[in-house]
Amino acid sequence: MNGPTTVIKNPEDGEEKKFSFDFSYWSHDGSKEGADGYFMADTSHPNGKKFADQKKVYQDLGEGVLKNAWEGFNSTLFAYGQTGSGKSWSIVGYGVNKGVVPQFCENIFKGIDEKRASGDATEYEVVFSMLEIYNEQVRDLLDPKGDKVRGGLRIRQHPKNGFYAEGLKVCPVVSYDDIASKMDEGTTNRTVASTNMNATSSRAHTIVGITFVQKFKNAAGEDTTKSAVINLVDLAGSERADSTGATGDRLKEGAAINQSLSCLGNCIAALADKSSGKNVKVPFRDSVLTKLLKNALGGNSKTIMVSIATARSYANLFASSSQFVAQFLIISKFQNYNGSAYHKRREEKEDDKDDDDESNNNNDDVDDDDDDGDDDDDDDDDDDDDDDDDDDDDDDDDDIYEPALIEYFEHSHHYMVSVGQIAAVSPADINYEESLSTLRYADRAKQIKTTATVNEDPTEKLIRELQEENEKLKAMLGGNIKMEVMQGDDEELSDEELAQLKAQMEEDYNARLADNEKEMEEMKKTFEQKLLEAQTAGGGNRSSEIEQMKKTTAYMYNLNADPFLTGHIINFFDTPAEKIGNGKDEGETELVLYGPGISPKHAIVRMEGDGEKFTLEPGEPNVRLMHNGKAVVDKVELNHNDRVLFGTTQFFAFVHPKQRDASKTPWPEVNFEMAQEEIAANSGFDLSAKTKEDALLQEDVVELMPAVENANSISEDLDKKMKFDLMVVSPEARGELTGRAQVMIRVTNLETKHEWVWSREKFLNRKFVMQEMYQNYLEGEDWELPKEKDPFDEDYNAEFHIGSVKVWLQPLAYR
């Protein structure tokens, strides 16, 4: 790295590729840990001078987001990278090494306190929301019963505000501690949901929303509302995949879970082309994720993207420590227009329409815009084209608004912004392809242009607009105004299709009516009223009570591949015997777990004496139960830091406070990778990686072993009679002259004894479809799939490589 230039070298042939960005941050080495745990530059290290700590990253990014919030601009912060790559380090951080978001939240409340102390009469409101997108379904993470909502929250569209999740819970907060508590609550609900195995963190997207509202009197003495929405988007893990690994597999794109990231990539590519002047359609409507992120990607938002790639062979090291330090941080600002700033109140502009000098004023505005750059008008045209391309329904939506309001939307002043991106890449040569892909992604995305506007209006005007919209909606629903169904395309539709479309539109209009009524009621409430209602509905917070119990009472906490989800499920053991199962036992089950291989009476934890000794035993024969990587067939003693696996997906660590406190030496930290590796080691795999190839092979084994057990358990529960086994295949056995040994999966039909060999990629693609089937099975829905979509089905006539033999040509020369 040299200034703004980043150079990546191919380890195979030494070819160099150069990428230019606005900033390059070095965080790989050159740091030291302070007494309080904060990582700072180590001036004695050769790279100490260029080490970028958390404060530096926040100064360049977070302060801009904070400034935008105070000025009333929306902002969006993306985080993208492989699972376990360390993307959370720069965005959220750990402990005293706070990332951009915690520092932003602390400073916004600090600013509020300072303004209030100075006698500022402005009213300030901060509200928080948190949702998750998995398999094209939206779940409210602040609703403990959110995972029970069939089909998830509905996505609707408002012409002014864009797409939104209907019924999403928003919680008022008064401090950063409140936000941290809500994030913890949402993460806990996310973790609990993941115990049913389907909503795995690496394949789900999480969106945290913080809305900052300022209410004050403007220069004309009118009550005015200025608002800004700050979104933190944690995208699903971008996993390494060999593009040829699943070639020919009919289910390569079968899992809907892959749709969102693919659509996001398509939107970024289209937006980059559009920003360069090409007339292309941006497919925002192709997925739930891109619908909700439409404003962030191409609309009213100032956006930062964090793309992170790290060395797969070193992921375990990062996961087992608190140092999820992104190894390089690269900042690139997207191209920006020279647009006009928000310099007039919108009401003044509307009032000027009736003045005799209207043409002069309009000409002045046009001249100002032209001076700023013609791109402004071009962008408006592009936006119009985009809306037309996206969906014919956009025009229908416009029809329900008064012409004056439509004209206002089209001609309001815009503030054209520069948009930033962070990319984090690894110096490890085994990660060359991932790092190159990340840099290309960042280079492509920096071309995107967005348009942000100040969200400021007189409060009475906002309420009046909502009332006018509701009157228009009621008139349409009452039949007083014709409801346009498809903008002239209705002649091509059958009567049944027209009826369905009309019913759908009526449902949407009724939903808008309800949303508008709710929004008007919220506007009339004081922030104190909203806060009291939220506290009453939310109940008490037991976090402090739980922390006290942890000091003296034995408990188990969950282990997860995502460190942010580790430790959110806590179960205390303070009775003589506690049963663990899937909740289907006739008796009481103290710890209920979901997922493949969990039996009604799965296990029992017993406490002997006054909590001096604890034991673990199977609740019934032949259950999947492992203790420190070994199968449990009889009673075993539980000691502090022991690892327990229930079924095929539920890892827990045991905490024995009395043993822990009696030890004079600190206990090592337990993590998910440690639990996985000891199972692989006890299964006969050699995990002593001596070469780069061994390290990659070891990671594949550790990754695939639980996945294979998972698939086997699902197969048993669904009675599919298919068996999966790991096998290590040399390049010669695959018919290749060069390469490294690879982990593959042998698939056996237990009825016919037919066998197939699947690649890692083909197996993982199919496993995600298996998980979707199993989730539907658990929820009592129709889970059977047709033969062509069944992930357990394989063509008996399919060809696969059995083996290879070398034929030496020397004997032939003597004949």
Automatic annotation (TrEMBL):
Keywords: ATP-binding, Coiled coil, Microtubule, Motor protein, Nucleotide-binding. GO terms for cellular component: microtubule. GO terms for molecular function: ATP binding; microtubule binding; microtubule motor activity. SUPFAM superfamilies: ARM repeat, P-loop containing nucleoside triphosphate hydrolases, SMAD/FHA domain. PROSITE patterns: KINESIN_MOTOR_1, KINESIN_MOTOR_2. Pfam families: FHA, KIF1B, Kinesin. InterPro entries: ARM-type_fold, FHA_dom, Kinesin-like_KIF1-typ, Kinesin_motor_CS, Kinesin_motor_dom, Kinesin_motor_dom_sf, P-loop_NTPase, SMAD_FHA_dom_sf. ATP binds at residues 81-88. Residues 349-399 have a biased composition (Acidic residues). Residues 342-399 are annotated as: Disordered. Residues 506-537 form a coiled coil. The keyword Nucleotide-binding applies. Residues 1-335, 422-448 form the Kinesin motor domain. It comes from the Eukaryota. GO terms for biological process: microtubule-based movement. The keyword Coiled coil applies. PANTHER family: STAR-RELATED LIPID TRANSFER PROTEIN 9. Belongs to the TRAFAC class myosin-kinesin ATPase superfamily. Kinesin family. This is Kinesin-like protein.
